[in-house]
Amino acid sequence: IKNIAVLTSGGDAPGMNAAIRAVVRAGIYHGLNVFGVKRGYDGLVKGDIVPMDAKSVANIIQRGGTILKTARSEEFKTYEGRKQAYENIKRFGIDALVVIGGDGTFTGASKFIEEFDVPIIGLPGTIDNDLAGTDFTIGYDTAINTVVDAVDKIRDTAESHDRLFVIEVMGRDSGLIAIRSGISTGAEAVLIPELEVDYNAIMKRLDQTRKNKSSRIIIVAEGDDEGGLVVADKIKENFPHYDVRVSILGHIQRGGKPTCMDRVLASRLGVAAVEGLLAGRKGEMAGLICGDVQFTPFGKAIKHIDKINTNLTRIVEILSL
Ligand code: ATP
């Protein structure tokens, strides 16, 4: 392997820049030429590929988003599109790829390897933390800290006005953003797609806490069957005396400076991806499990596993008395 390329794909996540920097610098450290592909697989299909050097990734470790930009490419989902992508990487002399993204990105990478035998290593870049093969994904820590910061602020107004706030957070069909931010903001309830919503239990808990609390926070994961607005309507129906407000945090959760933990994770995994390729690895995602870098085949990394630990859901219940 002499020439490698790096791309970011799917939804952006804080720490992607730190990962790009790590791939570029580790590649150079090991004597490789490194290219950057613009807008994920779209840039691969269109040949939007630029050489990167150590300086091109200077001063980006602290920046959110991705300097390479990201996109969703419909063309790459077709064989013709992937063939075009293969022709482009051959044209640039690229021998291997590092792709930073989520499950869709790894599904596309698997097909590309199968059809054209290009070595690819993936890095988990998504705020949702919904991949197997890593305890945490790049961007998750930053996103939950953003949520915690926002919920703390909402708690101030909820407390001052004796209000109940239903706060919808991101995570698609994963409740991992909801559960950890719920625990750390002292939410009275957390509704996640992995668990059936037990309204009776929630109402009971709200009832029990009514006397000694003036504010209440209910965190709802966006992938929950019932989004924040529906949950708020149900609460209004059952507790008409509550002053209920809804806040949908939205895209602020995807932006911002990556936390120290995300920068370190991205840096470690970026180096691991390059060294994995040099060691002959392909079709695997580099992740961190119990503090150690481990490689997991794409097929296993994208298999939706239930990373919600029931110990976490119990904590909410025990501590929201
Ligand atoms: P996030 O978790 O942030 O959404 P993701 O990687 O899952 O990230 P997707 O938009 O699902 O994001 O996938 C990124 C890109 O991967 C798609 O735009 C597409 O080009 C490619 N891709 C996804 N699924 C497939 C597939 N079945 N076959 C080929 N390519 C795919």
TrEMBL record:
Where in this chain does the record put each Phosphofructokinase domain?
A: 3-276
Pathway where it operates: Carbohydrate degradation; glycolysis; D-glyceraldehyde 3-phosphate and glycerone phosphate from D-glucose: step 3/4
Task: Name its cellular compartments.
Answer: Cytoplasm
Is Chaperone among this UniProt entry's keywords?
Answer: no
Q: What is its main location?
A: cytoplasm
Q: Where does ATP bind?
A: 11, 72-73, 102-105
Instruction: Give the E.C. number(s).
Output: 2.7.1.11
- Residues binding ADP are 21-25, 155, 186-188, 211, 213-215
Q: Which residues bind Mg(2+)?
A: 103
Q: Where is the active site?
A: 128
Q: Which chemical reaction does it catalyze?
A: beta-D-fructose 6-phosphate + ATP = beta-D-fructose 1,6-bisphosphate + ADP + H(+)
Stored Gene3D superfamilies: 3.40.50.450, Phosphofructokinase domain (3.40.50.460)
Q: Which cofactor does it need?
A: Mg(2+)
Sorted UniProt keywords: Allosteric enzyme, ATP-binding, Cytoplasm, Glycolysis, Kinase, Magnesium, Metal-binding, Nucleotide-binding, Transferase
| Positions annotated to bind substrate | 126-128, 163, 170-172, 222, 245, 251-254
Name the source's superkingdom.
Bacteria
Report the activity regulation comment: Allosterically activated by ADP and other diphosphonucleosides, and allosterically inhibited by phosphoenolpyruvate.
One short Pfam name that applies is PFK
Q: How does it assemble?
A: Homotetramer.
Q: Tell me the protein family, please.
A: Belongs to the phosphofructokinase type A (PFKA) family. ATP-dependent PFK group I subfamily. Prokaryotic clade 'B1' sub-subfamily.
Q: What job does the chain carry out?
A: Catalyzes the phosphorylation of D-fructose 6-phosphate to fructose 1,6-bisphosphate by ATP, the first committing step of glycolysis.
Instruction: Output this protein's name.
Output: ATP-dependent 6-phosphofructokinase
Q: Which organism is it from?
A: Sphingobacterium thermophilum
Upper classification of the source organism reads: Bacteria, Pseudomonadati, Bacteroidota, Sphingobacteriia, Sphingobacteriales
